[in-house]
Amino acid sequence: MATKSTNKQQKKLQKADHYDDDSSSYLKYWDGRDYEQASEEVALRKLLKGKKFKKAVDVGGGYGRLSVVLRDYADEVTLAEPSQQQLDIAKDFLKGKPKVIAKKAQAENLPFKDGELDLAMVIRVIHHLPNPVPAFEEISRVLKPGGYFLIEFANNAHFKNRLKYTAKLQRLPVDPVDIKTEAGRKKNDIPFVNHNPKTVKKQLAQSGFKLVDQLSVSNLRSQSLKKVIPHKTLVSLEKAMQRPLAKTYFGPSTVYLLQKV
Q1: Residue 118: what pLDDT?
Q2: Which CATH class, in words, describes the domain spanning 30-260?
Q3: What residue spans define the domains of the chain?
Q4: pTM of the model as a whole
Q5: Under 8 Å between Cβ of 135 and 126
């Protein structure tokens, strides 16, 4: 019979197994997603503008696509990624770019001392975590007092969803919403959830963080718009929309900038 600790470890490993599967490539996933990549870079740069850090970590950063952007703001950046396949891809992707240290690690068990870092970034990660609190608490542990935490998450309160729930005379769910496909459920694949931003804000506060700033991201994410509006125009519009739409949670992604209390 498996012990509780063994089961816990197996669940942690399963989060990385999806990205170690040779049948799916996270690098190829970003083909045709230049707008989404640009939107996240715009948000990162907007929130970190004028700041400089000594040591930062990109938690669950895949093959390092945004770790290299983080190097513009930190002297030392570690890519903490649980998938070996992603780390192998990172070796090639990061060649010739500003140095990024790559380590195999889970969000709930980071290889740093208490208070060692002054910036942590988590982008496109907590949609795999129905309960992100253990990860939030671990990030709080490794950050020094006053350290910054930049987090993006799939926002269940975005404009289209609000219209959908209103039409059904339903309230927005407070708890995470499972958006896995039927095929994913049959495979017992890793979780894919959208989060209520107000719930995430409460969880972050309980984990020792105060909100400093927020943005609405990927506000124009639409295959139809991509076909008719030039990329540069889309990105320019996105840049102008991120802060004005932030408090309405308009876009499918929300980004918070927080500080450890």
Answers
A1: 97
A2: alpha beta
A3: 30-260
A4: 0.90
A5: yes
